[in-house]
Write a structure and sequence with these properties.
With 178 residues, the chain is an all-alpha fold. Helices cover 18% and strands 0% of the residues.
Length: 178
């Protein structure tokens, strides 16, 4: 009974103060999981503009969509397609975006704090003003990405990713060539 009460209190606290708190990025397989029918229903609602923090959006196709200002915090967005989408000010805090296609994504001021971007393609994306504190970038392709105005990036994160001569990074930072 004490555990149930404690769990209820923690859930109430999280909902009052902006959702879950993430201590670290999720692993490549973490996140909520639904069956395909449930994911399809969720995808329809997301495309219509419904909020979706903590959702299972595995392999969702949001290419060319405008999801600016939306909240995908804590969601499983693994292997998704956000190519040429607009996500300015969008919250991906603690989301699993491993193996996602973010090719040409415009995500100015987006929040990728504690997100897993392992193996993601950020090629040609715009991330000025975006936050990357604690994000996992292992194996991410940053070729041609605009990250010069990004916040929270560390050299350690960049050492696990790769880029090219057209990758724009904060002053003094480098990424290995892909």
């Amino acid at each position: 009974m004490k555990r149930a009460t404690l769990a209820a209190c923690l859930l109430a606290f999280a909902s009052v103060f902006g959702g879950a708190v993430y201590a670290q990025a999720p692993s490549a397989t973490d996140g909520p999981t639904l069956n395909q029918e449930q994911r399809d229903d969720t995808a329809i609602r997301v495309r219509a503009g419904d909020p979706c923090a903590g959702c299972d959006l595995f392999q969702i196709d949001l290419a060319y969509q405008n999801v600016a200002g939306r909240d995908f915090s804590g969601s499983r967005i693994r292997q998704s397609n956000f190519s040429a989408a607009i996500a300015d000010g969008t919250r991906f805090r603690g989301a699993n975006l491993s193996l996602a296609n973010l090719f040409g994504l415009r995500a100015g001021r987006a929040d990728f704090t504690d997100a897993n971007l392992e193996g993601a393609t950020l090629v040609g994306g715009y991330f000025s003003g975006a936050r990357f504190d604690g994000a996992v970038l292992t194996g991410a392709n940053l070729s041609g990405a605009e990250l010069e105005g990004a916040h929270g990036l560390t050299q350690e994160q960049l050492n696990t990713a790769c880029g090219d001569a057209t990758t724009s990074l904060p002053a003094g930072m480098t990424a290995p060539n892909c």
